[in-house]
Structures are given as structure tokens and as C-alpha cells.
Write a structure and sequence with these properties.
Blueprint lengths: L4 E2 L35 H12 L3 E5 L2 H12 L4 E6 L4 H12 L4 E4 L4 H13 L3 E7 L11 H8 L5 E5 L14 H4 L7 E6 L9 E5 L1 H10 L2 H4 L5 H38 L4 E2 L5 E5 L6 H10 L2 E2 L1 E5 L2 E7 L6 H18 L1
Parallel strand pairs: 1-11, 3-4, 3-5, 5-6, 6-7
Antiparallel strand pairs: 2-8, 7-8, 9-10, 10-13, 12-13
Helix pairs in contact: 1-9, 2-3, 4-5, 9-11, 10-11
């Protein structure tokens, strides 16, 4: 059977945390919500994540769905207008839908369009409301980060708030993989960064980081901390292990990942194949208009390469999610398979 080069997993740094390397635990869950008792070690992990992200405080949740549902439910009690960057990821938008259902007005502006956001700010002030801007820290589909420092500068004078979905960035960009707050110099700005650790750090839990007062308010108002289970004891142990790995070899893993991205792009360029994604590990190849996406995806599989088929704005795309634990042979195989694909289906 032909070996497979898998480019469908977003475990960017290759962290997997097998049970044998984790601290042991007597039970997976406490059987009680976080409002009654924190999972052992959760506070220390939250403090470490806050420091990594350049924020004063943080708290842990089972997922970003729990996080953004709670966060926008809390913020809906205030006189905000929600202003959403058009590239924001769906999970955070589901939280926005809750806020809109509770009465907050909503406006969407084009991705990274600072003049459009500035114009919306004038209407927010005229309505005697505060701006609440939602954006992704990094949007792989666009190949760039939005101008987050500009967003923060616009909301600050109006007692506003910038909320980030930093899932793609945490572990991958910023000093020591600290994400967008550190990468964009947002320390001290009115910002809350919510992120899953499931991509960069390979851990199925989420963290909300920001100012100490906002985090305290969030924990007091959180519905899921009262009515749902907290992150499992195993997930907290895995997060502790991920942070230890990040401190020991995270920069080396990020350097390896960057080299893989550069090598992949260079190999495709040598065959006159263009891909979008810049220096980020999600690389997207746009197929020629005459090429059938299903047939292209099946042909890659026959060559032992797994990629993510996508349709976006009528274009057929193949996304390759690169990881630090890929090998140079994996990268070469993907480039050769793409070259063979174009010749085979031409």
C-alpha cells in the first residue's frame, strides 16, 4: 500500500500529547461545573497562557463555541453595536448571533477595510453606542491578518472593545507563538482574545485572555461555567504539556514549519504553479477553471497525497495544511503530485 502524505490536519506544530507522556489523572471530569470547582491545574495553565499571549489574565473553556456564546451573551447587556470583519470565522459569528438575538445591532464590513470601519464608527457614535469589533487574528482564506492595531486604535476612544478569534494564530505567530496580541503590539489595548488550542498546540480546549477586570466579569457572567462541564482533566494536562513543549522547542518547531512553507511554495513555483497563503501553513492552490475538483482530489489520493477540497466564490481550490512534523519527502511528494495532476487532467 502506497504511503500517504496527509495535508488535512491543522496540528501545525505537530503536537499530539499521547497519554503516556501526560500527568496521570484520577478521573476525566469532576462531575461539577467550573462555577463550583476549577479543574486541578486549570488556574496555573490559564495564567501561563495569559503570560504567553501578553495579557494580564485568562480563563479556560471547553471550546471556542462555549467561549463566544458566553462572551457575546455577556456583552449583549451593554450598549454596543457589533461590527464584524467580513472574514471572521463562523464559530465566533454564532456568538454574535446570540448578541443580535438579545438586541444588539449588527454591521459587517469588508475584510481589513479600515476606512469602512471608520465610517461605521461615526454611525455608532451618533447612536450613542459603543463599538464592539470582531475579527480573526489571522484569516487563512485571505492570506493575511487584518490591521488589528488600527482596529484597536479606532475602538479605544469610544470605550469600545476589539474581540479576536485567535485560533489560527496562537502557537504559530507572535513571539514564542503568543498570537496576535503580541504580534500586533496590542498589550494594554481594549482587546479580548479567544482561541482554541486545538490547532497550534494540539489541545481540545479554549482560552479567553484579556484585562483582569474583563476576565473576572466573564467568569461571573458565564452561563457555560454554570451549566456545562469545564475542560476535562486530561485536556488541562495536555495543555500543561503543550506549554512545556512550547517553552523547550516551540521556536524550533516554528522555524521548521516556516521552512516547510517556503519549500512547498518554491517547489510549486518551479513548476509554474501558484499558491496563496503567504508564510502561513495553510497553502491554497487554485485549480484551472476546466479542472473538476472531485476528479482532482481523487487523483491526488491515488498519488498518496491528502488535501482539503474547497469551493470559494465559484473557484475550485485545494488546501494544503502544512505541519512541523511533515518531512521534506512529504513536501516534495505533494509538489510532484500537483504537477502530475495538472498534466494528467489537462
Amino acid at each position: 500500500m502506497k504511503p500517504v502524505a496527509d495535508f488535512t490536519s491543522a496540528l501545525y506544530l505537530g503536537m499530539r500529547h499521547p497519554s503516556g507522556v501526560l500527568d496521570s489523572w484520577p478521573a476525566l471530569t469532576l462531575g461539577k461545573p467550573a462555577a463550583l470547582a476549577e479543574v486541578p491545574g486549570a488556574r496555573n495553565v490559564a495564567l501561563a497562557l495569559a503570560a504567553l499571549q501578553g495579557c494580564p489574565a485568562a480563563t479556560l473553556l471547553p471550546s471556542t463555541l462555549h467561549l463566544f456564546w458566553d462572551l457575546f451573551g455577556m456583552l449583549a447587556r451593554e450598549r454596543f453595536v457589533v461590527l464584524v470583519d467580513g472574514a471572521a470565522y463562523p464559530v465566533a459569528r454564532w456568538g454574535v448571533e446570540r448578541a443580535v438575538g438579545l438586541g444588539l445591532p449588527l454591521r459587517v464590513f469588508r475584510h481589513a477595510d479600515v476606512p469602512a470601519l471608520r465610517a461605521l464608527m461615526a454611525t455608532v457614535r451618533a447612536a450613542r453606542r459603543r463599538p464592539l469589533v470582531l475579527a480573526d487574528g489571522y484569516s487563512p482564506g485571505t492570506g493575511r491578518a487584518p490591521p488589528l492595531a488600527d482596529y484597536a486604535a479606532l475602538v479605544a476612544p469610544s470605550d469600545g472593545l476589539l474581540v479576536l478569534d485567535d485560533t489560527q494564530a496562537l502557537g504559530v505567530i507572535g513571539a514564542q507563538g503568543g498570537g496576535s496580541v503580541r504580534a500586533h503590539g496590542l498589550a494594554g489595548a481594549p482587546v479580548l482574545a479567544g482561541a482554541s488550542l486545538a490547532k497550534g498546540f494540539g489541545v481540545p480546549l479554549a482560552v479567553l485572555a484579556g484585562g483582569a477586570d474583563l476576565i473576572r466579569r466573564f467568569e461571573a457572567a458565564s452561563d457555560t461555567r454554570l451549566h456545562a462541564s469545564p475542560p476535562s482533566v486530561a485536556a488541562v494536562a495536555a495543555a500543561r504539556h503543550a506549554l512545556a513543549l512550547n517553552a523547550a522547542c516551540g521556536d524550533a518547531l516554528r522555524a521548521t514549519l516556516a521552512a516547510h512553507v517556503a519549500g512547498f511554495r518554491a517547489a510549486l513555483a518551479a513548476d509554474d504553479l501558484a499558491c496563496a497563503g503567504g508564510a502561513f501553513p495553510v497553502q491554497v492552490v487554485r485549480l484551472p477553471g476546466w479542472m473538476d475538483l472531485a476528479a482532482a482530489h481523487a487523483a491526488l489520493r491515488r498519488d498518496g497525497v491528502l488535501a482539503v477540497p474547497q469551493y470559494r466564490k465559484g473557484a475550485a481550490l485545494l488546501a494544503f495544511l502544512l505541519r512541523a512534523d511533515h518531512t521534506a519527502a512529504d513536501i516534495g511528494r505533494a509538489a510532484r503530485a500537483l504537477r502530475h495532476l495538472v498534466k494528467e487532467l489537462a
